Amino acid sequence: MDMHLLMIGLQVVHVGMASFWLGTIVLSDVFLWPAMQAMGLKTQVQQGLLRGPLAKTMYVVATGTVLTGYLRGWAGGAFDHLYSLYGVFFVLAGLLGVFATVWWLCGRARAGPGRTVWLCSMAGMFLLMIGLRFTAP
Ligand code: HEM
User: Fold this and answer.
1) Domain map of the chain by residue range?
2) pLDDT tens across 18-42, in order?
3) Which of 24, 26, 58, 82 has the highest count of CB atoms within 10 angstroms of its CB?
4) Does the beta carbon of 78 lie inside 6 Å of ligand 1?
């Protein structure tokens, strides 16, 4: 198989899913939840959404982002460069990705300090992606 084509395909899926994941978080936290809170609807809407297709979609998108991230790294030779800044960023992103997904699945990311920890892990992954871009071998 052409590794270059595979890498491009994985990057398309990875960046697509990651943008969706991060985009929904920014939309919810910056605009939707504050507006819902002001109307006294936040908890009701969140519970309704958890019962609908959004929860399943987010499950696929979160695990898909992390999985395609690992695969994109593998296809691009990241495992041959683990002892470099690029490798460190890659490993940190991988750990944060698993942490963020498990934390969210355990229901710890919904509110309060648990949500703050989770948002920090998402912001950390975003920064690590920029780091990967500029340290790629
Ligand atoms: C919030 C989660 C994530 C977001 C928003 C995200 C976003 C992105 C974006 C936009 C790129 C393209 C960078 C560029 O070419 O300029 C990228 C590349 C990449 N991502 Fe992610 N990503 C996330 C999570 C992960 C995780 C968890 C991993 C590892 C398991 C990962 C591994 C990679 C790799 C290896 C590349 C290619 C870097 C390169 O060599 O140029 N990503 N990601």
Assistant:
1) 3-135
2) 999 999 999 999 999 999 999 999 9
3) 58
4) yes
